[in-house]
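Sample intake — Butyryl-CoA dehydrogenase
Collected from: Amycolatopsis alba DSM 44262
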Amino acid sequence: ALAAGTAKAVLDYVVPYVNERKAFGEPVSHRQAVAFSVADIAIELEGLRLVALRAAARAEQGKPYAREVALARKLAADKGMQIGSAGVQLLGGHGFVKEHPVERWYRDLRAIGVMEGAVLL
């Protein structure tokens, strides 16, 4: 749930940024690669959210839920890092500046991956 919430914050911050940021006289969101990257963030975020909700629903119903929790943890680690990285990339040079919260969210999402053991080298 932590990864899904942080990833949602990344998406909510990135969408207005790419719509307002201009390059070559038009918003960068008009570039196909940027639009696809934002769409990928939204898709992966929804997957994270649904898997976490499924695990919670099974636990609440008293059904076995270990498999769903393991899947949610794995997805949170893998997709969380991807979403954080994509958010930083979409902001370009601003993605690594502390004035933008995306760099902090990227570190938080990456920490979830480190805790899970999915470190990228």
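Post-analysis note: The chain has a mean pLDDT of 87.
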